[in-house]
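Entry 12.
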Amino acid sequence: MVKVFPKSGQKGFTLAEVMVAMALFMVVIALVGKSFNSALHTSTVIAKSEESNIDGVLGLEMLRHDIVQAGYGLYTLADTAPSFSEAAAGTLAADYNDTAGKAVPRGVVGDNDLDKGDNSIILSGTDYLAIKGTSLGTESAAQKWSYMNYTTPAKIWTKGEDKLSDGVDKVITLRQVYSTGNLDRKLVFDTSTPTSWALTYRDDGKYASTYHPTANGQVYYYYGLGSSTPRAPFNRVDYLVKRVPQEMSKSCAPGAGTLYKTVLNQSDGSMTQIPLLDCVADMQVVLGWNATGASGSNVVDTWSNANGTTTSPGNPLSPSDPAFVRSSLKVVKVFILAQDGVYDRSFNNPSTPLLIGDDTSLGSLSRYIDLSGPNYQHYRWKLYRFTARPTSL
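Predicted 3D structure (tokens):
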């Protein structure tokens, strides 16, 4: 056996030296690990913040688009009240139906500062917005229309994606008429049969005489609703904030809910729910009216809360009157407070309540939220706001 001995002057490490080296190594590893965890936490916060921003932009753009479409294809006059149904009875959405003795529906219906008494799943203090118009449906037919005058057959668009489906799509018929100095969209149907307002679209335009022009100069318009037999001569979408614990994201603050878009199901009156934005703490709606000016003026002289019960200044409003809504509602402002990122124990919100709405000049139409409470304390928040003009009322 060959034995190897250290050369003269060579020495190994003592146990103390090894322990010191290991201790230094562990300190370095700990510092690197802490730095990594800090960087990982920061990157997670930033990533979730950017994700929230993207979701917010997409969801709010959908809401803004629907507000602009409010009233599109909606009739404003009828010889007699047609018979139709909206949201099914017993639902929160049914509170905003227009079938109780109204011959004409409203394009925009709002409610202010809901509470648990309205519905057990609603996020208390948030507003509600219902929007009506033919183009608000999710089926492709809702984005299509056609027309026919007395001397030529029905207009058939050359592009297939613009064309109503022959023998499939259901439409309503409108005719423009002048009534008391105003241009109205009159619903055409057999008044002896109040449920006869829906037609199945035909390329050849060979409808019963009631549903096509009978005199020179007349033009009838056909607005698509969908492919199933409709229960209402318009489509409808509602926006609300709900808190259903089993449906909430685990990253949301305990006091937050989810912004939903709900779409009227024409077959049974149920509302199809589409979640748009997670972790929403509040939604406030402010309406701008031309309450005292001349008809047709776009100047806003009065602001109100979502249901028109509180105004600034105190001009009287008639938000339950379809004609008043059509002529006087000029602007819809929406404010949505949404979570920005994830829980951060090192972050604390200030104790000063946050204003959800316009500045203090319209304070009575706004709402303050204390974000220093346990349900919001360690979460960052972002206030989204936008203004939309309903151009089709």
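Annotation: Residues 15-68 form the longest helix (54 residues). Residues 3 and 10 are 16 Å apart (CA to CA).
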